[in-house]
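We now fix the convention by which a protein and its fold are recorded. The integers have meaning only within a learned vocabulary of local backbone shapes. A complete example follows; check for yourself that the lines match position by position.
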Amino acid sequence: MDEDASAGRGITTVAGRLALAITLLAFGLGHTAVIDGVSAADAVSIAQYVGGVALFVAGLVALREGDAAGGPAFSVLGALWFTWAVSDGARGNGAGVFLLLFALVALSLTLAGGDRLGRGVYGLFFVALLLMAVAEFAGNDGLTKAGGWFAVAAGAVAWYAATAASAHWPAALSRRAAGRGVTATG
């Protein structure tokens, strides 16, 4: 069976991806400053309870179910989201180091495998965190906003991945160029 067809279909994976999507969307939108009066500080309670506690619990349940991809990912991300939320808006080099370490976890999850949508979520999240870490070191609000947009994109992909799994929508692009019997010439 194709890994993309079977990956991410369990209810725990769907719940974990939804928790991650909500957290990434709130976190990203807070950093973009695109909505008047909404900042990253507004995402703290969502990050603490949805991204932290709920995602960590989803990871533990996934581990218990034998999910070797979702279990570790959700539990580690849950712990890091909780830590970010209780850091009380740390700024500067300390926040940059934390975001850089968080980015390395996202990079590891991207390279660890799993389905394409999951790798896409983690890859976009890695770029978001890397941009935000550099922004903290450099004091650059433009990079923070760019990182926020990458987090919003990661949240949108995570939301689609969760919805696709529960609604049985396509979770992978076809590997055929244009359908049956069509071949590319070279």
User: Anything to note?
Assistant: Confidence is low (pLDDT under 50) at residues 1-8. The two ends are 30 Å apart (CA to CA).
